[in-house]
From TrEMBL:
The keyword Membrane applies. Pathway: Cofactor biosynthesis; adenosylcobalamin biosynthesis. Belongs to the CobD/CbiB family. InterPro entries: Cobalamin_biosynth_CobD/CbiB. GO terms for biological process: cobalamin biosynthetic process. One of its GO terms (cellular component) is plasma membrane. The keyword Transmembrane helix applies. This is Cobalamin biosynthesis protein CobD. It comes from Duganella sacchari.
Length: 320
């Protein structure tokens, strides 16, 4: 492991960080990712100017945003002399990078609003988590937006973060979440961000390639019954290639197949109607399916932690 931690320690720290995230949630004030987002906005305003060097300025902005903070996180961990202190630092870095409870807290209220037939409130809540236009969205459109966000961000905010924690400890988790945040902020194909954000989008694609497919496989394994697993697998293999994002496609297609609902389809982004491919197989998703999508993400988290602990126990036993 690049972190220098034993796999047993990694497994314990993963469980501890996830439990801390579920219990405490996001830091209410001075959250590191919020501060990082403010830094990213300042860099974009400063460096994103028209001209032939726009792409290179995007590369420079990415490096200025991510590399110093990743190095600082690594130095912080390695500056601690006691192994226990180092482990605590790794766990805290992972905790700050995780967003499992945040997914629940932002999406389940949408399901509650839809259950009350309160479309205005559901539209308001959904607008906080997606970039698409929700001002006149129907229940089905709001459900699609929330469920897609849960399935895709389950990978970004949880499983990809855990993967890079396994690879490189706390600094690895921090680097991944910062790269993912920059893709979310700069990765749009708008005239202003197409060239400037290209590097951020491609780097996130590379870092997310393996985690996204492990997430898609996890959704397949946790689909109900053999038929559900077959459907999730077939949706992944048949539908994901048509999706613009090489990583969102597998996670959302397999997740929609596991849920047995239809996601994807047309949505309005930045005032433009986008005709996106259909994902999944079954009836259009409705409000209750948001809760089912959350449960799929939560069960996948439990699966990952169980696998990590099992592997750690086997490694300890074979080296005893």
């Amino acid at each position: 492991m690049l972190s220098g931690l034993s796999f047993s320690t990694i497994a314990v720290l993963m469980v501890a960080a996830v439990l801390l995230d579920l219990w405490w949630g996001e830091v209410r004030r001075w959250h590191p990712l919020v501060g990082f987002g403010n830094l990213a906005m300042a860099l974009e305003r400063r460096l994103n100017r028209e001209g032939p060097l726009r792409f290179l300025r995007g590369v420079l902005a990415w490096m200025l945003a991510v590399l110093p903070l990743t190095a600082l996180a690594a130095l912080l961990v390695h500056a601690l002399a006691m192994p226990l202190a180092q482990s605590v630092a790794h766990a805290l870095l992972l905790y700050f990078a995780l967003g499992l409870r945040s997914l629940r807290d932002h999406n389940l209220p949408i399901a509650d609003a839809l259950a009350r037939n309160d479309l205005p409130d559901a539209r308001r809540l959904t607008s906080y988590i997606v970039s698409r236009d929700t001002t006149s969205a129907s229940e089905i459109e709001l459900t699609r937006a929330s469920a897609e966000s849960l399935l895709e961000n389950g990978n970004d905010a949880v499983f990809g973060t855990l993967f890079w924690f396994i690879v490189a400890g706390g600094p690895g988790a921090v680097l991944f979440r910062m790269a993912n945040t920059l893709d979310a902020m700069w990765g749009y194909r708008t005239p202003r961000l197409l060239q400037f954000g290209c590097a951020a989008a491609r780097i996130d694609d590379a870092l997310n390639y393996i985690p996204a497919r492990l997430t898609a496989l996890s959704y397949v394994l946790l689909a109900p019954g053999l038929q559900g697993k077959r459907r999730a697998w077939q949706c992944w293999r048949a539908q994901a290639p048509a999706w613009d994002s090489p990583n969102a496609g597998p996670t959302m297609a397999s997740g929609a197949g596991a849920l047995g609902v239809q996601l994807g389809g047309a949505a309005i982004y930045h005032g433009q109607l986008e005709h996106r491919p259909v994902l999944g197989d079954g009836p259009p998703a409705t409000g209750a399916d948001i809760n089912r999508a959350w449960l799929l993400v939560a069960r996948t988290t439990a699966l990952w932690l169980a696998i990590a602990c099992t592997v750690a126990a086997i490694m300890e036993y074979t080296h005893a």
